[in-house]
Specification:
Strand content: 25-35%
Number of strands: 21
Structural class: alpha+beta
Distance between the termini: 93 Å
Radius of gyration: 26 Å
Amino acid sequence: MVAGDLAVTAERVSKTFRLPHERTHTLKERVLHPRRRSGTEQFQVLQDVSFEVASGEFFGIVGRNGSGKSTLLKCLAGIYGVDSGEIRVAGRLSPFIELGVGFNPDLTARENVVINAVMLGLSPAEARRSFDEVIAFAELEEFVDLKLKNYSSGMHVRLAFAVMVQVDADVLLIDEVLAVGDVAFQQKCYDEFERMQNEGRTILFVTHAMPLVERFCHRAMLLERGKMISLGEPGEVTRLYNEVNFGRGQQVMAAAEAGQVPAAAPVEVVDVWFESPDGSRIETAVQGADARLLVEIQANAEVDDPIVSLELQNEADIRVFATNTNWLERATGRLRAGERARFSVSLALSFAPGRYSPIASVLRPGAGIGEILDRSANFPAIVLERGERVGGGLLDPPHEVEFEKLGAAQESRR
């Protein structure tokens, strides 16, 4: 990678916020307590963060809440100044830190689209020319003259994202914009991401959704407590992200501070997938279809009786199904280093239409649920398409219904 190929460069970027211990809100408080002094505490959000993003690269930034991801994006956008270090951006930059910033709820969608597009860098003529395309993408043709304060949250998000993708910028900073919306609209967003990739846009993408990191990103970076602890191949970064979140955070941080690669978990999840009854891998199915959910694990050290857990989460991050190897009539036994094992669950996919993500965990037996050795949500989801009968609930299990006429109602007797 030569200097001319770089779109974004950050060198030893640090940012500190000062947090007051006590705030004085009114003039009366100042008069009544003139000697009161408010101390402050320094909170370092970013510490010596350095990375480079090549032109045309899709770069993921991940980390737990409070790790400094959004602050880093705001520093890159120029919203926050940095305390030390240097940031360089080549080309026109558009930040999408929060969808819909600048929308006026008392104006119609028609008026907001033009105003917001101009705020994001389009000329008024370009904004008006793109209006029909924006409304068609958002699927809001029937509501263009409705004030935004009467929009649902989903309609608001669709409109904001539709405006966003019209901006012709070289570098885009995107923060968690795909965490909302229904399945069909999310797929349109994914298609737009692929289009922008094909056009050679440079995208820095903050997210908690590890499957999206593995699907779209060329490289990714993991932040923890303001420090960069991993930068590289998306699969490795997402694995470390899950370890930081589920039980090995201190080991990962200690290794990073020592400049070492964290040791692999004693047992790790290596694959999770759905199968049709004929044994073919599937990512779509009709609501109510029979399927198998399988997880494959690998031991990196000798482990006795590991517990394997499987969960399904819907788009609202609600766990709709969970099971584990404790349902077996026997323990799982000893796994030796290098040995693999597979746990499978056969079930009818009797859930509401939508996207369902599998989450697999491996635990060491112990008090309560035991110690989490590995946990991963980085595997393909399954999309359930609408079946012949839809009840409208979160679950739609097989059921029979009856209806019978009872004749004329008789007047009750005293």
